[in-house]
Amino acid sequence: MAEALKIESLKLSERSSIEISTIKRNTKIETMNVICRWALTVSLSSDLPPPPLAKEDKILREIDWKIFAGDYEHLILALLKSRMVQEKLSIDNETLNDQLRAHVQRGLSLIASQKHIRSIADFAELGLA
């Protein structure tokens, strides 16, 4: 029987933690899980695959999967798996966890680099673009 796919937590690098702090400061959104969910959707909206994870990235923080995903657990898993199939990636736990981290990391970088994001409204418009 195939092992069920499982994500325990979202691991965040030092760079990602700095970008979250920047986004929090600019938008006044205080919860990391909300910011990281937005980051995931921003990254998934790109047609290009996220850059590979740097093996030397030091993990600074972790968000428990249940906290990160909340009520959207099944939707987030479905979106990630769909993207992995589209990119012809192996559907296994390690790749699933790596892809979650890579997409969130890319999304955080994209959001943090947007100098015009100075409020929650600006942040929300980014998701609608």
Give an account of the 3D structure:
- The protein has 129 residues and is mostly helical.
- The chain has one domain: Arc Repressor Mutant, CATH 1.10.1220.
- 58% of the residues lie in helices and 9% in strands.
- The protein has helices at 14-27, 32-44, 65-69, 73-86, 93-112, 120-128, and strands at residues 9-13, 59-64.
- Strands 1-2 form a two-stranded antiparallel sheet.
- α2 (32-44) packs across α5 (93-112).
- It is globular and about 45 Å long.
- The model has no long low-confidence stretch (mean pLDDT 88).
Describe how the helices and strands are arranged.
Blueprint: E1 9-13, H1 14-27, H2 32-44, E2 59-64, H3 65-69, H4 73-86, H5 93-112, H6 120-128
Helix pairs in contact: 1-5, 2-5
> How many domains, in number, for the residues?
1
What name is given to the CATH topology? Arc Repressor Mutant
Average pLDDT confidence is: 88
Indicate the CATH class: Mainly Alpha
Return the CATH architecture: Orthogonal Bundle
Helical stretch tally: 6
Number of distinct beta strands = 2
Descriptors:
129 residues; mainly alpha; 6 helices; 58% helix
What's this, in brief?
This protein has 129 residues and is mostly helical. The chain is 58% helix and 9% strand.
